């Protein structure tokens, strides 16, 4: 008989069967994974890690959020939005080596014609000013959802 819990991780590292592919749609990420995470409901196959974007550099996220052993182009993780100032609304996107900057327009994510969230694209810059060197670490995130 199969155990009810299907979390596949050992010592905090994702352990999935050979050939496992994780390619959820944006709708699935919001409606299933993020909704359960926000409501503290157990996720059947727990392969999305919790990370702190302000304490990790993008090159560390790739290794930490790797699923299985095959090469990946996408990494999935949960991260809390950090405020720059305790009473303000500005988001803190700085790390020790640089910062994440929003770029482009936010993309609206729909489910059955209903708006359920937004996708924001962030790009990592090494250094601490806008003239810093851009790196090849674009990050597409869904900062909120509605239901």
UniProtKB/TrEMBL annotation:
<dbReference type="GO" id="GO:0003677">
    <property type="term" value="F:DNA binding"/>
</dbReference>
<dbReference type="Pfam" id="PF02365">
    <property type="entry name" value="NAM"/>
</dbReference>
<dbReference type="GO" id="GO:0006355">
    <property type="term" value="P:regulation of DNA-templated transcription"/>
</dbReference>
<dbReference type="InterPro" id="IPR003441">
    <property type="entry name" value="NAC-dom"/>
</dbReference>
<feature type="domain" description="NAC">
    <location>
        <begin position="16"/>
        <end position="147"/>
    </location>
</feature>
<protein>
    <submittedName>
        <fullName>NAC domain</fullName>
    </submittedName>
</protein>
